[in-house]
Amino acid sequence: MRIGVVRVFLTVVYTAIKLVTRVDENKVVFLGRRMDREPLDFRLIIEELRRRDPNVKVATLSKLLRGGDSRETFMFAPVLLKSLYHLATAKVCVLDSYWPAVSMLTHRRSLVVYQIWHSLGKIKQSGKQALGRTQGRAEHVAKGMRMHEGYDYVVAGAEVWNPQYCASFGVSEDQLLNIGLPRADYLLREKDAIAARIRRRHPELGEKPVVLYVPTFRRGENATGALKLAAELDLDKFTLVIKKHESDTLIYPPQEHHTCPDYTGTELLTIADYVITDYSSIALEAALINVKTFYFLYDYEHYLESNGVNIDLDNELPRCVFRDAPELMRALEADYPYDVLKRYQEKFLFPDPGHSAKDLVDHMFTTGGLCTR
After folding, report:
1. Which class is 187-348 in CATH?
2. With contact defined as beta carbons under 8 Å apart, do 205 and 271 qualify?
3. Which residues pair with 274 in a beta bridge?
4. 179-208 pLDDT per residue, tens
C-alpha cells in the first residue's frame, strides 16, 4: 500500500512537470544510487560525450541508497523528486542500478533509457533472478516497485552472459548491447598511471606483495570473510588491502590492513599481486589485466540458498577456488595456474576490449537520437 501511495504521488508530480516542460534533444541525465559521488562509468561516458559534441548537456544525480535504512530513504527523497524534472526534459537516461522513478513511472516516448549495470558479467544472480531469496527482493516489493522495468537497452558483457542478463532484467536479447563498461577501457588504458598514483599516495603498498580482498555485497549480513582471511594470512610476507562494497557491512579484522578509501576496487586492481573475491564480478576486471585471482567461497552453500550463482566456479576456475582459508593461503605461495586464467578469459571476456565508452556514445547519437536537432 505504501508503495502504491508513493507511485501515485510521483505520477501526479511527474505528469505536472511534463505538462510545463519540453524535451531538450541535447540532454542526458545520469542516475545512480550506489554512492554519494559521480561513478567512474558515468564520468568516462560524460567525457566521451563532451569530446564528441560540445552541445551535449549533462545532469548527474548520484546518492547512496542501500534500502532498509529510514534515514537514507529520507535523504534520498529530494534527489528522487529532482530526478523527475530531468527525466521529463532529457532525451537519454543512463542508470547503473535500479532507479524508482525510471521503472515506476510512464515516460515520454522520446526518452531512451540505458541500464549500464555495474559489472562485466553476471557471476552471481541478481534482480529478477533472486526474487524471494534473502539476498534478493521480496516478490511483492519488486512487483510494486516495477523492479527493472522501463529499460530500452541494457549494456552487457560478453555474449556468453546474455541468458543471465535477460533473466536478471527481464529483457529480450535484442535489447542487450554487448559492449562492456567504460571502466574496462579506463583500466586497460590507464593501468600503469593509476598504479603509480596509488603508490605515490601509499608507498607502504610497494614493500611486499599485495593481496586485495574484494568481496561481493551481502544484503543484511555482517560478512566475515575478511576476518577469516586476515587470521591466516602471513602479514610478514604480504600486505593486505580490503575493499568492501559501498553498501556492505563487512566486518574488518583486528590484524593490520589497508582500506585506501580514496580509490575504487577497480583502481586498486592495478597494484594487486593477488585478488581474492567470492561472487563479485570484479574478478572479470582482474582477469582483464591478468591479475592472479582466487575465489574464497567460505559460505558457498549458504550463498547458493540465499542468493544463487550463474556459473560453476569450481569447474570454471579449478585450483583457484577454496572454501578453507588455510588452503587458500598455501595457494598464494604456490605457482599460479595461468592456464586456468587464460581459459577463463577466453570464455568470459571480450576478444576486443577497450572501446566501450565510444560504442555506447555512438549508440546514443544514432539509435538513441541524442543531438539530432
Report:
1. alpha beta
2. yes
3. 211, 292
4. 999 999 999 999 999 999 999 999 999 889
